[in-house]
Amino acid sequence: MKRGRRINQDPLFSSAGELANFVVTSNLIDYDLAKNFEFHRAQTAFPCSVQRMVYHPTPNRTIVVFIPSPDATQYPLPEGGDLVPSPEFKFLCTKECPFVSINRAALPCFRLSMLTEKEGQLIITGHSLGGSVAPLFTLYPLDSMDKKIKCLPIFISSEVAGGLLQVVDYGEILRNLKNKAIWKGPQRAGERFADPFSAGIIMKLETIGFGQTKLLQHNIDIRRMEAEARSLTKKTKASDIKELNDIKKYMALLEWYKKKSKDAKKGYYDCFKSGEFRRDIAVGEFMGHLTTYWEDMVAEAQWKPQTEGASFRTGWLFSGTTYRRMVEPLDIAAFYRDGGTDYINNGRSQHYKLLQQWYEEDAKPPSRDQLDSRKEKVSDLLTEDSCFWAYVEEAILSCESLKNANSSPEQKESSWDNLVMFGEYVMEQIENYVVSPEIFLEESSFMKWWGEYEDYINTNRNFYSSRLVNFMKRRSYKQYGRRAI
Asked: pLDDT exceeding 70 applies to what percent of the chain?
C-alpha cells in the first residue's frame, strides 16, 4: 500500500486494466513476492498460524508481511469462544452485524498505531494464509488515513479464510501475467494463468477441488465457462443501465403528472388521492417501480460497512432525496384515502426514514444566499418535508375532533394543541421557502383544512391570533415567493 500521490493530481491511468498492467510489469510485485518467500523460508514453526513481520528497507518505506507457519494446520486459531471486541474495526459494522470481534490469538497482528503514524510508503502484503489476514489488516489504515491519499494494497493468496490451503505457483502466475501485459499476441498453449479473468475461474475451481485432472474427467470446458461469465457480466451491466434509464423515465413521468395536476388547480397530492382520472391510476405503476428500486438501494447501503456504506450513499443521496420528496406524498395520499391515521407511526416505510436520516446527517444550515435562491425558485419547488401532507391530514382530523359533539374535553384540548403546533410548523416552512406553492391551490387539502380551521376560530375563538392565521386571513399566500414574507 503506497502513500503519496493525491487525488487532485491528474490520473496516470485511464482504466484499472492499464494500472494492473503497469503494476504487473514493474518490479514491485517481484520484490513483494521475493520478500514473502524470503521471510517464509527463514521461519521455523511458531505457535500461531500467522505471524506479522515488519521490515524497513529504507527510512521512508515500511513493509508489513504476514507469514503463515511452515505448518499452518499445526497451530490453528482456536475456534469460537475466544473472541474479543475490536474497536479498531468498528467501521466494518453493519445493521445486520453491529459488532466486530477478533480471535484473541490473532489480535496482536492488528495493533496498528506503530505503523499508521509513519510517513512515506507503507506496503502491506501476505502469502497463502497470510494473504487472507493482510486484507483485514489493511482495512484500518485505509479507513483512518487521509482520504486524499491513494493506496495500492498487494495480496498474494490462494487461501479463503477458514478454508484449505491450496498449492499454487505464484511465480508462474506472475511470469505469465507479465508476458501477457508486455506481449499482446495470442495466448500460447499451456499458459493457464496468462489471462487474469481465466486465472480467477481456474483458481476458484481449484479451491473447491477441481484441478486439471478432475476438469477433464467431468468434461468441463474452461473456455466456455469464461465466455459465459464474460457474457453474464456484460448482460448485468446492460441491465443496470436499462434499470437506471427506466428510473429516470418514471421520475420524468411523475414530473409531467405534477404539472398536469397543477393545471387542474388541485395539486398532484390531491389528484392522486381522489383518483378521478386514468392518469391518476397509472401513477401507481410508476410509484411501484421507483419504490422497489429505492428500497433495494437503501437495503444495499445498510448491508455495507459503515464507512463504505456512507461513501456508497453519497453518490445517489441527492436522487434519493428527490425521489422521497416526490413519491412519499403519494404514499401518504393512498394511506389516508384508505382510512389510515397517524401515518408517521403507522404507515411510513423504513426506507423513507433512512433516506431522510441520511440526508439530515449530510445537510448544512442554509445561507442567506441560499434562502434568496429558494425564494426566486419557489414556484418550481418540491416541498422539502416529504411528510408535510401527513401533518395536513392529521390537522384535518383534529378539526373534525373539535367539531365533534361526542369528543371529550380532553380530546378537544389535545386536538387544539395539535393545531397550534401545526400552525407554527407550517409558518416555519413558509418563512424558509421550503414548501411548494401548490399547497395554496384552491382544491388542495391544505386549503380545505384552512377553511375548517378558520370557521372554527371565527365561531369559538374569535380573538385567537397567530402568525399563520394572520398570514392566511390577509391572503398573503397569493404573494408567496414573489416578495418577502
From this structure: 59
